[in-house]
User: Fold these one by one.
Assistant:
Number 1:
Amino acid sequence: MYLRGDIIKPSEDCSRAIRQTFEERQDYEGFTWKKVSEETKTFYFSEFEKSFYWDDELFTQKQVRKAWNKKASGPYTDMVKDIKDGGDKANVYFPSY
């Protein structure tokens, strides 16, 4: 994994891994990426770190986390949209209040 500016590459592989992590654990208050708790985001990022490696001499964890956060917001928004639309792509459950 590497960064080009603040973009994670390879983009498709990272997006796929991020989305799979969302299916492992949900934040029931997180109907938008901004509302997902920091604890849950930390879990998601730690799972991401298990699958992707970067050169610590080129990229700090802070840089990677910032790029990851930017990248993760898109798949998260897509997942929530799938859930709201009742699509079969969503393998997670958010209770209705």
Number 2:
Amino acid sequence: MTVDSVDLKVPQVTFQSSTLKFRIILSYWIVILLGLPLWWFTTSIDRLALPVDRVLSISATSELQFPLEVVVDAESAAEGTVKRIQSAIEHDKHKSEAPWLGMNVQVHEKAGSIHNTGQNAIYTIKLHPQLDALDGSALCELLAPYKRPHKGRSSQERLVARYSSKFRLAFSLLNEDASAGDSVVGWDIESAIDQYLSPVLSQLTILHNFTIESQVQFHAPLAFDPPEAVSPSGEPEFTLSEEELKIFINSADWTLASSVTEDPVLHFILFVPSAARRPLVVRSNTGSQKQSFIVPQWGSVVILDPSLFRSRQTRLHLTDNDLAGIFKTFRAQLLTLLGVSSVPPSVSVKSHQVSEWQLDALLRKRTLENIHDSKEALSSIVTLVSQIGNMPVGQDVKGDIQDALDAIDQVYSDASESPRIALQRSANANVLSSRAFFNPGMLALLYFPAEHKYAVYIPLFGPVTLPLVVALIKQLKRWWQQRSSMRQKVE
């Protein structure tokens, strides 16, 4: 059987026409172009103009000056007292200008030359016959006790906490291991605070508001084992070196924060070593012994030796009399942490109070520190914004900067009227400038620069846009070739 050959025609497969392909590709690009404004709007940053000229002008402003007038009672003071005071001040300024920064000192011979026009506007010092023996160097130390008001810090000033209008004072009685016996189960802290700290705290309320809290812990182990040594008297003891004091605070096991607060906390710890580690003393590099030490800008620690109360019961409860020496130490350390200056040995001051000399000097020092820190923060903001072109500057940042500048202007005008108001203004300026500098919207860009954006966008949009670009180029080439061939046919 023969089969006639049959011509089989395979239908030609036809794809979309060139025009249809071009329209499809063009529609993708239209969608992309229409989405660009939305992408730009959603990813653009709010960058408001800052008062740069005003910031630079305030940064270049001369040092804040407090008028300080020394009034000498000409009728009762000895002859030549004014000249002696003036020469002492000029001599002290010649040695170092730093302690006298921010002070415009004028010495007058009689009280009638003083024109006090404001409330607490001018510091006046009257020298009476019994004070005429006050030497010039002691007077200079009372007027300008701080060697560096805000430019650098000495070893003593490194202990001082940064200024804050509010402080929380946390008193903690920590037993290293109460189960070993001879523990301290309680203390009359309210009575001790009222007797030894309240007078000082009431005086310092012109600078700070204090909140007090206390706690007792029965297990507060050390993070290391103090070595055993022999005391100069031949008795065994456990010693802490100055290097070990840096790791004495065991934050991991000691629950020191008893409340949640944003206010800075100054800790005052009465540490009771376990019965197996007594006595525990601190030995300095010079070999001297002490029972207390200050942790810079954090607080202080007093180490208790319960053997002093050996005649009492095993579980001790410290009375206010027992706490007298301890809280006198806490008081002295508190004044150091807050930056209260010491007085010359030739000047007698009540031990449980802060003199007006010290308060006045501290007012000036804290105001100068706040103004200096505010200017630095504002200058840093302006520098960062100018260096980083796409750093966001929102209305909250701009508002804080403007309010800080207004507060600084008010400080300069209030310094001659009321130093206390000037301190409040300077603290407000410092808070506003710091809040602007640490604004979350500005800090985020410091850790997410433009290079990171490219690293995110390229893997996301590269695989999508590259085929569209290649297809568009092919279609344009094909369209150009068709157009060229049509021209040739016409010719």
